[in-house]
Amino acid sequence: MIELKNINKIYEVNEQHRVEALKNIDLTVKQGEVVVLKGASGSGKSTILSLIAGLSKPTSGEVVVDSKKISKLPDNFATIYRRENIGFIFQKYNLIPTLSVSDNILLPLVPLNLDTKELDTKLNSVLEMFNIAHKKDSIVKNLSGGEQQRVAIARANINEPKIIIADEPTANLDKELSLDFIEQVNGLKKSGKTIVIATHDPLFFNLDFVDREIGVDNGEINL
Amino acid sequence: MKQYINLYLLEFAINSILRKKSKNFFIVTIFTILTFLLTSVFFITNSIKYELNSTVESLPQIIVQKLKAGRHYDIEVDRLDSILGITGVTDGVARVWGYYYFKNLGVNFSVIGIDEYEEQYKDTLSKIVEKFDSSKYSEDSMVVGQGVKDVMERSYYNDYFNFIKPDGSLKKVKLGGVFDAQTSLESNDVIVLSKDMAREIFEIDENKATDLVIKVANPKEIPTVASKIRLMFPDTRVITKDDLKISYQNIFDYKSGIFLALFVVSLFTFFIVVYDKASGLSSEEKKEIGILKAVGWTIDDVLKEKFYEAFIISFIAYILGVGISLVYVYFFQAPLLQDIFVGYSQLKTTFELPFILDIQTLFLVFFLSVPIYIFATIIPAWRVATLEADEVMR
């Protein structure tokens, strides 16, 4: 279970300029739930995802995942938590463009020093699951947007995380590819993953498999 | 069982180097040049020092010169008899030698007069006496170093040479033989002929010599014997082997000191260039670190990967630099750089740099290059890696 308790997040742009990204946020996401955070650009959705993933820390308040206060974890422990629990699909995919599809997907496993057989099994599994096996040796920068997103989803799933976080996942996709992505999310929900998606894409609204839609506006939650 | 070295991390580092080919090629090139220069200087210095030490070892134990008004004058040969009476002195030779200035090419020859029946005070001279029949360096003949022969030939003196005596008359001397250029550092500009001829060329009286060379049985007694000679002949300058060693060393250290001072400046400049190139993480590189952290790489993982990258680059450059330097110094005999140490004279000493592979030098160059580059790479990466991944990616 993910719990955000009275979260405030302030970005210090410079000495004079501070941006209050989140104001007194309280949010709970149960295990296996699919939650969509709706809101305009700059409303604070991405900041919420970043806090859940342990990519940044709140200015005040607590982020608790499965009873673990991840907002209090030192950087290295937060990274290990992320590696073991979180699969993050970024808006611009955040792939390394000069690496191959396989190398990008395997990135989260590199520090684990697993044996080759185990790596191959995990790699082939996600390549098949997200229908990207035929491109496994291609260099990522040569792929289409849809293919890059499949690579990003495959990478987010390679470490079999409990929680999948997607930040504006369809922002760079056409309608067909967006629907394809939604289908994949549905598949992930069926496998028991907790999924939090930040989007302002109407295709995500009123979907059967989405448990809750939560509005975020100007750093605050509108239930 | 887990391997101690994460080979995937190593593979990622190698891929990362190959992905940034042009930047890394530039760094390897600069570093190779730097390592090559640094190693070459050390190799040349070591070889010349070795050669110099061998030369110094063959120097006379004590030299006695007569001084008048602070200047070096010819010394009476019979003073040798009194010196030979000092306890501990086993032998003495009155040397007749001098520098002959060859105006045509502006070079100085070292002219040494020898007597085949005397004990020679230098190995080089002993070798010449052994190698050549006495007729080759007496009876109007001389043997010369290869450098002297080359210079003479440039002025079309192929079989003989005309010395101009102090009174302006000429002394024609035949070329009896040439000793090889490899003999040692100081034999290249030497002309060896009989003492009588040397006296004639320099107009030195028969009962006088340029200086006296004294041999002492126990080297520990050299300072005592030297002070006794000073007391016996207050108008003399008594030079011991140790004094000469210091003087030789000072000349060499002076030259290498100037060179090293210049070198340190260029070294510093190189490091600034390389540091700038290595430490200036581009926005792509920063973002890449952010991505690695976001997908689960700890700060340690990022730094390990950067360490592998930096080590591979700098070690390749080090190996290349040392390898090229070995070929340059010992195969090609260090053209240009050697001149800085041995001078630019037309009669410069030509000699083979002896192969001296000093492990300390290799370690010194290694520690002056590889760890510095690794730090220059890791520190900026560490600065980025310790930021929040979210901040780095944004």
Number of domains of chain B: 2
Assembly type = heterodimer
- Determine the mean pLDDT of chain B: 84
Beta-strand content bin of chain B: 15-25%
The count of β-strands of chain A is: 10
The structure class of chain A reads alpha/beta
Total beta-strand segments of chain B: 12
Order of helices and strands of chain A: EEEHEEHEHHHEHEEE
Report the sheet with the most strands of chain B, covering strand number, pairing sense and barrel closure: 10 strands, mixed
Order of helices and strands of chain B: HHEEEHEEHEHEEEHEEHEHHHHHH
Rounded average pLDDT of chain A: 91
* Most extensive interface, chain pair and sizes: A-B, 30 and 29 residues
| Span of the ends, CA to CA of chain B | 39 Å
What would you note in describing this structure?
The complex is a heterodimer of chains A (about 220) and B (about 400). Chain A has about 220 residues and is of the alpha/beta class. Chain A is about 30% helix and about 25% strand. Chain A contains six helices and ten strands, in the order E-E-E-H-E-E-H-E-H-H-H-E-H-E-E-E. In chain A, strands 6-7-8-3-9-10 form a six-stranded mixed β-sheet, with helices on both faces. The model of chain A has no long low-confidence stretch (mean pLDDT about 90). Chain B has about 400 residues and is of the alpha+beta class. Chain B is about 55% helix and about 20% strand. Chain B has 13 helices and twelve strands. Chain B has helices at about 5-20, 20-55, 80-85, 125-130, 145-155, 195-200, 220-230, 240-280, 285-295, 300-330, 335-340, 360-385, 390-394, and strands at about 60-70, 70-75, 75, 90-100, 105-115, 140-145, 160-165, 170-180, 190-195, 210, 210-215, 235-240. Chains A and B meet through helix 2 of A and helix 1, helix 9, helix 10 and helix 13 of B.
